[in-house]
Amino acid sequence: MVDAKDEQDPYIEHRRLLFATAYRMLGSVTDAEDVLQDTWLSWNTTDHDAIRHPKAYLVRTVTNLSLNRLTSAQATRETYVGPWLPEPLLTSPDIAAETELADSVSTAMLVVLETLSPVERAVFLLREVFGYSHAEIAETLERPEPTVRQIAHRARAHVQARRPRFDADETRRRQITAHFLRACAGGDLNAVMELLAPDVTAWSDGGGKVTAARRPLHGTDHVARWIVGFLAKPALAALTMEPAVINGELGVLATIDGHTVGAFSFDLVDGRIQYLRFQVNPEKLSGLTPDNSLALP
Q1: d(CA 256, CA 107)
Q2: pTM for this structure?
Q3: Fold match, 10-162 / 170-292
Q4: I need a surface site. Which of 2, 6, 79, 123 has the fewest CB within 10 A?
Q5: HSE of 25, CA atoms in CB hemisphere, 13 A
Q6: Whole-angstrom distance, CA of residue 21 vs CA of residue 32
Q7: Topology at the third CATH level for domain 170-292
Q8: Rounded CA separation 95/105 (Å)
């Protein structure tokens, strides 16, 4: 995206951190890349000699640009067709081994972050994920430190109250993924049902661009029949589904003739799938190509 001549340039040095900040703020690969482009343009029109702490300057720029974009995006999401889900992102397999890091970028966490106000989201991420002090966040957001402390406390309590508790056993997750793929490939309704929790909920995000359920689906029978019926469509005869590390967790990547057409993520509770999220909106799949795979900090 950016042709930077100096590989030691602070923007290049901290680009992974900047993308990680923007992506967690926005839940969108496309928007995060746009924010980074704007940050780079700002950085290259600034007197670098006048900036004592380039990293802090860049993080502040990304955070404030993300805040502006998130505020306008919330209005757009109110008219979004069907359930809104974050844009999935292929991530390094190393992330899945780091529980706290994987949790901070998981689809489930990004969905919870959507329930925060833009400022709460910024404060929570800077404090809880990236470890900035209240004083540093106050400087970044240009708000009094006592106000930032109050926001941080409120946001942390909000997230803790809504953050679901899931099984973190990677071996079990691999087994469930393999069983799910076999059941789907065989159109085995009973096998799919056996993998689902009784109170399972499924969301599918097509954004009005492709076929998807317009409302969340609830219950083993309803969800399983929708999955099997959807995959049986003639248009998906050439569909291939394979395991992939998506947002720090093992999920499923769907392709047709080598082109990515969707992603599936899930959360396990007591060894069964409790929540499923299908992202099939073609405008939200740019982070699912190997070239865009990132090892997020």
Answers
A1: 23
A2: 0.86
A3: no
A4: 79
A5: 35
A6: 8
A7: Nuclear Transport Factor 2; Chain: A, (3.10.450)
A8: 9
Residue boundaries of the structural domains of the chain: 10-162, 170-292
| CB-based contact 59:18 (threshold 8 Å) | yes
Per-residue pLDDT of the chain in tens (297 residues, 90 and over written 9): 445 444 578 999 999 889 989 999 999 999 999 999 999 999 999 888 888 899 999 999 999 999 999 888 777 777 889 999 999 999 876 554 444 555 677 888 999 999 999 999 999 999 998 899 999 999 999 999 999 999 999 999 999 998 877 776 888 999 999 999 999 999 999 999 999 999 999 999 999 999 899 999 999 999 999 999 999 999 899 999 999 999 988 999 999 999 999 999 999 998 999 999 999 999 999 999 865 545 455
User: In this structure, which topology does domain 10-162 adopt according to CATH?
Assistant: Butyryl-CoA Dehydrogenase, subunit A; domain 3 (1.20.140)
Over its C-alpha atoms, the chain yields an Rg (Å, rounded) of 20
Other beta carbons within 10 angstroms of residue 182's beta carbon come to 12
